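Pipeline run #58 for the internal structure catalog. This entry was flagged by the ingest filter as a single-chain record with no existing model, so it goes straight to prediction. Upstream metadata was stripped on purpose; only the residue string is passed forward. Reviewer on rotation: M.T. Logging verbosity set to normal.
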Amino acid sequence: MVQAETTAGGLAGLRVAVFESRMAGAMAELVGRQGGVPVPAGALREEPLSENPDALAFARGLRAGRFDDVILLTGVGARYLAEAVAAELGPVEWIEALRGVRLIVRGPKPQAVVRDWGLTPAVVAPEPNTWRELLAAIDAAGSVAGRRIAIQEYGQPPTELIEALTARGAVVTRVPVYRWALPDDLIALRQVVRMICKERLGAVALTSAQQVVHLFEIARSMRLESELRRALREAVIVASVGPTTSEALRAAGVEPDLVPDHPKMGHLVATLGRGWRQVQKAGRLGPAAFGASSPAEPTRAAPAQSDRLRESPFLRACRREPSGVTPIWLMRQAGRYMPEYRALRARVGFLELCRTPELAAEVTISAAEQLGVDAAILFADILLILEPLGFDLEFSRGEGPVIHNPVRTAADVDRLRPFDVEALGFVLDAVRLIRGGLRADLPLIGFAGAPFTLACYAIEGGGSRHYDRAKAFMYRDPGAWHALMERLTDATAAYLTAQAEAGAQALQLFDSWVGTLAPADYRDYVQPHLCRLFARLPQTVPAIHFGTGTGSLLELQRDAGGQVIGLDWRVDLDNAWDRLGPDVAVQGNLDPAVLLGPVETVRAQADRILQQAADRPGHIFNLGHGILPGTPVDRVRALVDYVHEASSR
């Protein structure tokens, strides 16, 4: 790397997205030395080809003396090539075979590898080591007409170099050794795409064409491609390392603002430091383009954003107001059915994921973006609230949640700790990060478990089929039961209120197990606590009251509270809504198992529910419970698209 000129404070605190992977540290250091704030987001990784017949054919040809020249374009590629031919040529035979050809290297990195092999290259491309300098060095060494040349490729064919050598009469053989792939962890890259779209970055520094390709590929998967292109054209300064990267940008519809004289990282950053003030888009970089480097820095909604949220189809439906489309979101829309989620869970435990705001935010936002739903729902778990109360909670693989110190007596209730919502500050931080990363018109739903469902887990020590221990406790000691419900009600009201204050636009109460109760028991043991809970929630934030197996409890649920009543699939939506009356919205209610069937069945079942809703204002399409783990992602996307299409006709 050529040492670039530095100007202390040249970037003046400008946030600069950098997309290097192996050289991420060096790139960040260059930005920092110019006084900028690097925001790293590795955009690619080198993936050796698992099967490489071209490399093996090259090895056989090299052994047989069928090549005159071997061009090594990268250091890492040269090492990969040696590994790829090992099945044909051992280390000693590999070195001896290379002694029989003219070795040509593109710069110091492959030159260092060749020296490690005990060899000396015959031709070395001078700075800045592009294919043009390499070709000039080859020309200076003599004619290549009739020479048989093998080129070690990196990621993609060096088309210009191949065409130039072929035009000079050379016989060129391509030897691929690795391909460019997206990083295993896409969190930082997705966060930076959102930052660019929201104009919370001052500049991007791109050092390869493949970075551009992957940047737009990720934006496309997030349904933000047009917004990314707009921001790069109009708001964010684009620095390109050289001609190939600039061509990739132009192919994506973006003209680079700054290009250094030499296509090297150091020159790129120095050029950015000297020239960014002169190329500010419209002369206006806002304050969000400067400062701290967190890719998911929380932001507060501006008034214009608040208006867009209020008029979103989801929030209009919560208020029973007409909108141009039936809004849809899905319970458990971020979960095990998504390959990205499974890959993350392979590295991170469930509780760790919930307790890491950046990861919880990324899971929440990426699921909403991929599916195109009308609301995001916070990624968390209903049982997190039990830990601050003193419960020892664990999620065991294959067993689900386990509470090691369950409630079994009145004394156990008395021992519960006072609830402090700050103990769940990581959830509130996730809410702030999500709100800062979501589209300006996409609402965020916060949630909590309902007191009865939480009490069942607390008493049973985990899941249960019949909740016999919880019911026995309820019947045996009503005083202790109500004391427990009061503690859970107070904690849940405080927790949901804090989520609303942190940036959630709606709140859902999950009463997953309340359908196990008879109506009389619901009225005596549950409803009074729910009435108190809903009365304590912010009245400007709509509340969704959801339970499963509640066909016999709908009127009681409505009377307990909530502007929206969630329905499971065990009731017909039209009959249930008639029972509830016109003063509440309804949410639901497709059987999650339908998504395991063919697309035609998904559409037909969605049509049935839309027909039952009959275009009445206040219908939010959803499943009757969460997405099942084995659900194909394409079925989920097909459902979302179809509900939008069919309801907007």
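catalog note: Residues 47-181 form a domain with the Rossmann fold fold (CATH 3.40.50.10090).
catalog note: The longest strand covers residues 444-449.
status: ready for reviewer M.T.
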